[in-house]
Amino acid sequence: MAPVGPGVERLAEEVTLKFPDARLAVLSSDLFTTARALKDQITAIAAGAADIIIGTQIVAKGHNFPLLTLVGVIDADLGLQGSDLRAAERTFQLINQVAGRAGRADKQGHAMLQTHQPEHPVIRAILGGDAEAFWQAEAQERRLAQVPPYGRMAGIILSAPDMATAFDFGAALARHSAPLIKVGAQVFGPAPAPIARVRGRHRVRLLVKMSKGLALQAALIEWLGQLRAPANLRISVDIDPQSFL
What we know:
By secondary structure, the protein is an alpha/beta fold. It has helices at residues 7-18, 35-46, 87-99, 121-128, 131-145, 163-175, 178-181, 216-224; strands at 24-27, 52-55, 70-73, 110-113, 151-160, 186-198, 201-211, 234-239. The chain is elongated.
């Protein structure tokens, strides 16, 4: 079984069946051709033009819906999966933001989360309202793992028209990692990037981890300069990346 999000369109279909008389609004950047059209829809919703709003993460981004009293988050823990170092903090911030849309005026607000991991530290911290405890636990985990901000990392993305080209070059880089090993760095991968294909190009990722205070850039230059990349392969290097996709 593979986890697949239901998508706003399918949720809209289910809501229409269950609440046929409700005025339904769907908010997704994919459904609007211009930023102006999206803004007009949000303004109308804020004024009371909808009874039920179904939206992507865009709903959480600072919009004020004074009549909104109930928020439901579908698959609240979906963002916790994968290999993104910042998945926990992003999920914590996002759920707090979207839950905060409810009850911003005179009426009391409620938020409900659908989760497969009710005991996950992120979910427990949100339910308990203890943000400080979450940040302290997250910092301690990163300190023990020696990852940013307590260590250094670099993301290497290799992209090519076919997966084999990217994977083969990534494997060759992994075999020739002596310049990194001699300065105490570790190399992980190659593996398919979380977003494995963009505009017809296959993407393979390697991660490099190193302690703070070491010459990461110099070691990377020496490491990547050992091999000649195929003409159709592109190499992207991100030092201390904000995104691991």
